[in-house]
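Severity: low
Component: inverse-folding endpoint
Summary: output formatting inconsistent between runs
Steps to reproduce: submit the following structure tokens with default settings.
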């Protein structure tokens, strides 16, 4: 029997064999034409879980080999789910389309607890670890009234204890030595001064040590559970130690002193190297600025020092320094190319108690805890990878770290009243906390950078706000698009999903009727995240009409250092806590 199966057993007759014969009875897990249920499902059992290799440690990754499942990659040249970064809130849900359904149509449960993030309908509150899972069943249609959600549900059943004690230690590892470099890394070429690759293959490392112990609960000196048939336990833990590929950054950034290929220091107002400037990526960059603007702000590529705004200079300096000459090789006019990795660590602990109250009443309680310590992103929080929608982008002066936490509790009691009447009650509580903050706030805060410009709306801790998002909308400047961090320097989402379900099964002669009730009250609480610290769009030319025709290059970088802004936006609202109650009753008879 597998999770969600309904098997009918016909008359079985065994003929007596001779004394020298061996009778072997084998049970098949495949039923060509189910006669007791109309559901369509596929089960991955323990044999597949242990013998088919996967990339990560999430048993739900096996849906990749299930019929009807398709990955959604979007506009990027990569799969939407690479299973290379295991963590709380991650997982394949939200990255697969089942039978042509939208990605949000996929639900996943673990021992009856619904794990999908209620805020985005993506990711998992619990990592369904392949070493702690006994089977995975994917139900795609026509399932019974005991399945509250759909249209596609992944049901996972965790391991439990048995009559014999069992323990094991294990470790999985992957190392970058055997990896090939990405084409984008190879095409960046080598640094002429060192002979080393500009974007070498990422030094990714994955190490997953873990252990398990299970068996009957025996209290020494007592007769409790002497026959090992009443109370059983299971405990498993795994440590996830990962160095994750963050992709390759390609961007045009302001030069500094002694930047490769030029002596012009844009951060000090020197834009005189016309051959260098004209090759930088960006349609607004065509040559050296000549003259114009109030206070004769620039002449022959030099910015008047009196016209340099201290706030603009501080914002220019948040960008990393160039590391390549944009005129060399196939670099596409980018003077910053960098391949980076980030660490992503997590600890997971899972326990389960099974109690046989009597022959007709069974109870189990399952608890899973996870906590993360990871660099969630080096650039924009919402992407986590250099090749993303906000490209070209560059790392922030300090990475965003997450200390996520999740708790999942499930209690299940099954009562067989008569051979034809069974009732099952399931209660689950899921808590998901996803806090993200900058590792070194002083490198991104107004106080730390010395920013003194006025804000559109008052704030009790104005000095702790991070610097505004910055973009040139394709003019060549690298995007800096982190938002939020409004209240206490942390973007967080605290989510809960309590639920209660009751399933009744009744057999009348040759017919089986099922009644199902499910109630959940998901809630989420988070601060504002829409440009709450401001979005600064740099001007592509000086606002003075007479100067417009003369300013046709390096305009965005020049606009920032002079603190010339074309648009500025910032909402004043802080999102209140939100919650919703969802009650659903289902009935299906056969």
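Observed output (run 2 of 3):
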């Amino acid at each position: 029997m597998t999770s969600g199966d309904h098997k009918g057993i016909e008359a079985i007759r065994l003929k007596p064999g001779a004394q020298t014969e061996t009778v072997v009875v084998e049970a098949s897990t495949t039923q060509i034409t189910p006669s007791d249920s109309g559901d369509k499902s596929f089960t991955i059992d323990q044999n597949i879980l242990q013998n088919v290799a996967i990339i990560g440690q999430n048993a739900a990754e096996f849906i990749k080999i299930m019929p009807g499942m398709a990955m959604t990659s979007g506009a990027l040249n990569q799969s939407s789910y690479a299973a290379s970064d295991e963590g709380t809130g991650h997982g394949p849900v939200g990255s697969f389309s089942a039978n042509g359904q939208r990605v949000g149509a996929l639900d996943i449960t673990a021992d009856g607890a619904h794990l999908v993030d209620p805020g985005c309908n993506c990711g998992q509150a619990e990592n369904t670890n392949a070493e702690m899972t006994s089977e995975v069943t994917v139900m795609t249609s026509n399932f019974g009234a005991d399945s509250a959600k759909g249209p596609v549900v992944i049901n996972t059943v965790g391991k439990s204890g048995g009559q014999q004690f069992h323990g094991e230690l294990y470790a999985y590892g992957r190392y970058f030595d055997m990896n090939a470099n990405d084409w984008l890394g190879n095409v960046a070429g080598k640094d002429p001064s060192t002979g080393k690759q500009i974007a070498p293959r990422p030094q990714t490392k994955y190490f997953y040590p873990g252990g398990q112990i299970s068996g009957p609960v025996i209290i020494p000196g007592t007769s409790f559970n002497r026959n090992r048939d009443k109370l059983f336990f299971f405990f498993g833990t795994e440590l996830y130690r990962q160095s994750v590929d963050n992709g390759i950054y390609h961007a045009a950034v302001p030069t500094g002193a002694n930047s490769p290929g030029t002596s012009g220091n844009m951060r000090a107002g020197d834009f005189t190297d016309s051959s260098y400037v004209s090759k930088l990526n960006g349609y607004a960059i065509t040559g050296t600025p000549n003259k114009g603007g109030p206070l004769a702000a620039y002449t022959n590529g030099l910015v008047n020092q009196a016209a340099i705004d201290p706030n603009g200079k501080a914002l220019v300096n948040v960008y990393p320094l160039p590391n390549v000459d944009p005129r060399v090789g196939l670099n596409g006019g980018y003077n910053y190319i960098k391949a980076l990795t980030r660490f992503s660590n997590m600890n997971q602990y899972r326990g389960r108690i099974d109690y046989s109250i009597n022959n007709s009443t069974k109870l189990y309680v399952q608890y899973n805890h996870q906590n993360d310590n990871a660099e969630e992103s080096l650039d924009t929080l919402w992407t986590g990878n250099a090749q993303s929608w906000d490209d070209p982008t560059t790392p922030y002066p300090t990475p965003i770290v997450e200390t996520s936490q999740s708790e999942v509790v499930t209690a299940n009691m099954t009562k067989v009243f008569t051979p034809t009447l069974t009732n099952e009650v399931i209660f689950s509580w899921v808590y998901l906390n996803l806090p993200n903050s900058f590792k070194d706030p002083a490198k991104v805060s107004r106080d730390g950078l010395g920013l003194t410009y006025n804000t559109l709306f008052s704030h009790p801790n104005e000095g702790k706000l991070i610097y505004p998002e910055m973009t040139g909308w394709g003019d060549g400047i690298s995007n800096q698009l982190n938002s939020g961090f409004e209240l206490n320097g942390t973007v967080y989402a605290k989510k809960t999903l309590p639920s209660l379900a009751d399933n009744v099964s009744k057999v009348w002669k040759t017919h089986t009727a099922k009644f199902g009730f499910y109630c959940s009250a998901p809630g989420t609480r988070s601060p504002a995240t829409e440009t709450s610290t401001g979005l600064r769009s740099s001007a592509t030319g000086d606002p003075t009409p007479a100067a417009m025709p003369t300013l046709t290059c390096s305009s965005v970088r020049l606009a920032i250092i002079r603190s010339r802004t074309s648009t500025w936006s910032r909402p004043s609202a802080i999102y209140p806590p939100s919650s919703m109650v969802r009650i659903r009753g289902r009935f299906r008879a056969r």
